[in-house]
Amino acid sequence: MNNIKNVFSPQKRKGKKVSEKIIDSVEALRDSFGFPSGRAAQKEMSSLDKHAIAFIELSPFIIIATATESGADASPKGDPPGFVKVLGENQIFIPDRPGNNRVDTMRNLLINPHIGVIFLVPGMSETLRVNGRARIVTDDNLLSSCSVKGKIPKCGILVDIDEVYMHCAKSIIRSKLWDNESQIDRKTFPSLGEIFADQIGGGLNAEDVNKDIKSKYKDQLY
């Protein structure tokens, strides 16, 4: 592997420099991992089939990945199962719900329209990946079809699909994501208010932040 470099990370951990071997080319990457074969090479589709559509209709939770020329971002989205609308075998629509107004995902899409979406279904260890190109739309008919509790989204993400394929269950099996015994006792980890008070500072009161967050969870989901 001629393109693997041995460098020292500028970051220090416990006062020691960390030595890293870097793969810096596709050739070196393939030297290390080889090429996909069999089902892994054959599973990629250019459009949704009946199984992918059924999976999307069951999914209440997705992770959206976007990027610009200077960085990348991943964002979780959740709603009742089927909140992502299948408009055809090559198109899906993701409604946008009220959030913190950072709009990182949509800001990225204005610079780089490429998008990746992973769909999860609770209790199911396989996942579905959809890659494509997206644009932000405010079509009244589309948005009205995504109304929840009488609240219509301001906009949504329309995705033209390039690639679709199922992921095997290895990552979920390894993580034991859906196992009840994997759940931690929430009291063993600081509340979001406590975390923000530490990270932001400036006299931020953790209890007040927690009350504000709880109120928004109750009244501003839609």
Characterization of this structure:
With 222 residues, the chain is an alpha+beta fold. It has two domains: 50-173, Electron Transport, Fmn-binding Protein, Chain A (Pnp Oxidase, Chain A), CATH 2.30.110.10; 184-219, no CATH class. Helices cover 28% and strands 32% of the residues. It has eight helices and nine strands. The protein has helices spanning 26-33, 39-42, 50-58, 104-111, 140-144, 170-175, 192-200, 206-219; strands at residues 4-13, 16-23, 61-67, 72-78, 85-88, 91-95, 114-120, 127-137, 156-167. A hairpin with a 4-residue loop joins strand 3 (61-67) and strand 4. The chain starts with a strand and ends with a helix.
Keywords:
single chain, 222 residues, alpha+beta, Pnp Oxidase, Chain A, 7-stranded antiparallel beta sheet
Give a brief rundown of this model.
This protein has 222 residues and is an alpha+beta fold. The chain has helices spanning 26-33, 39-42, 50-58, 104-111, 140-144, 170-175, 192-200, 206-219; strands at residues 4-13, 16-23, 61-67, 72-78, 85-88, 91-95, 114-120, 127-137, 156-167.
Topology of this protein?
Blueprint: E1 4-13, E2 16-23, H1 26-33, H2 39-42, H3 50-58, E3 61-67, E4 72-78, E5 85-88, E6 91-95, H4 104-111, E7 114-120, E8 127-137, H5 140-144, E9 156-167, H6 170-175, H7 192-200, H8 206-219
Antiparallel strand pairs: 1-2, 3-4, 3-7, 5-6, 6-9, 7-8, 8-9
Helix pairs in contact: 7-8
